[in-house]
Amino acid sequence: MKNKLFVMSAASGAGKTTLKDLVIKDFPDIKYSISATTRKPREGEIDGVHYFFKTKEEFEQMIKDDALVEYNLVHGNYYGTPKSFVEKTLAEGNRVLFDLDVFGKVNFDKVYPDATGIFILPPSDEELERRLRGRGTDSEEVIQLRLANAKKEIEFAKTKGKYEYTIVNDDLQKAADELRAILSQK
Question: Which stretches of the chain score pLDDT less than 50?
């Protein structure tokens, strides 16, 4: 039986979204989990496709209603995984690929301990900073916050995380091939 749940984690800018976009189309039975968030949509993002965009009040009601598998406050915004999405996707016979930060994954593992963890690392701190700056979407303050958080997240993942696989994203095609191999395992 194939693994049903996969959790990718990485510091912002490590390339997990790019990797996911390259690979997931090769697996029609794997659905990408849509998280709920209180952050504002970026250009081109659609509610219910990229995220479920919520107000802070709506998100806090979801917390009170125990409607989330996990949630966390990241970069000043809430992010969380709606239980209903996971249950519906599994009931349809599909597998699910999640994008969770390292702290959210710890909470997720309490609910789904058999999920396969995949940690994506940037090749270096310098390359991570170059990628974050290259996006052109964040202020200097946000970039510095993301860099500081990246160091904490990487250390946490190495010491306290449950990741069966680590992919260093130094060559996009090689990293994509490694991710495909993980998702293909029985």
Answer: 1
